[in-house]
Design a protein that fits this description.
Mean pLDDT: 89
Shape: elongated
CATH class: Mainly Alpha
CATH topology: Methane Monooxygenase Hydroxylase, Chain G, domain 1
Structural class: mainly alpha
CATH architecture: Up-down Bundle
Largest sheet: none
Number of strands: 0
Radius of gyration: 20 Å
Order of helices and strands: HHHHHHH
Distance between the termini: 36 Å
Helix content: over 70%
Number of helices: 7
CATH superfamily: Phosphate transport system protein phou homolog 2, domain 2
Low-confidence stretches: none
Length: about 230
């Protein structure tokens, strides 16, 4: 394969990875909106759209394999292909988390912990993903470190949110008049919210993974890979 055509395919891979990230971000936003608005139609759209993300992943995985097989890449191209493959893996897993959010939305019947601002924390994590993909597109190593620093803040926010939920549960009065059904519903609500917080935190972790692979791609630096 002529070198020029090979370089064109590398650029196409970059564009397709960025497109996949846009689809995943859209699904995450829909999942979060479905929770906030208790919108069943929106939730089902997220769940049913997971197959599109899975297919994008499989197509891009094959593209990466083909690029490696077609021509022995130089070191910089090899790092780019390897980083792209790792990044689409993180994106696919974020798609699964979006599906989780849609499922949580279908299970939710009421707001039991209004003092926990899920959307505020989620907005930060989505911005992390956007920044990570910008760093990938622009080959920006400095932005990679910034994302890793923000993740520490997200972890702290998620921990505080979980503590509020658990503390509120402990302080609630469940007396002899509380039915078994009421108790089970409360526990289900608590479990759902804790899982939502956990999944939002995981989105931030995947953003850091993307930043780490981007840093390695650009500077052959594995400082953020763990």
């Amino acid at each position: 394969m002529p070198r020029e055509s090979y370089q064109e395919r590398l650029e196409t891979l970059r564009e397709d990875v960025l497109y996949m990230s846009e689809v995943v971000l859209e699904r995450l936003r829909l999942g979060l909106d479905s929770i906030e608005q208790k919108d069943e139609e929106m939730a089902r759209e997220v769940i049913e759209g997971d197959h599109e993300i899975n297919q994008l992943y499989l197509d891009l995985e094959q593209d990466c394999i083909d690029l490696l097989a077609l021509q022995q890449p130089v070191a910089s191209d090899l790092r780019f292909i390897a980083a792209s493959f790792k990044i689409i893996t993180d994106l696919e897993r974020m798609g699964d988390l979006a599906t989780n959010l849609g499922e949580y939305s279908l299970e939710a019947e009421r707001d039991v912990f209004p003092e926990v601002d899920i959307q505020e924390v989620a907005d930060v994590t989505l911005e992390m993903v956007e920044s990570a993909m910008d760093a990938y597109a622009e080959k920006d190593p400095e932005q990679c470190y910034t994302i890793a620093d923000i993740d520490d803040e997200v972890d702290e926010r998620c921990e505080r949110a979980s503590e509020i939920v658990v503390r509120d549960l402990i302080e609630r009065e469940i007396d002899a008049d509380s039915s078994e059904e009421e108790i089970e519903q409360l526990m289900a609500d608590v479990s759902r919210l804790l899982l939502t917080i956990r999944d939002i935190e995981r989105v931030g972790d995947h953003a850091v993974n993307i930043a780490a692979r981007t840093l390695y791609m650009v500077e052959n630096d594995d400082d953020l890979i763990y």
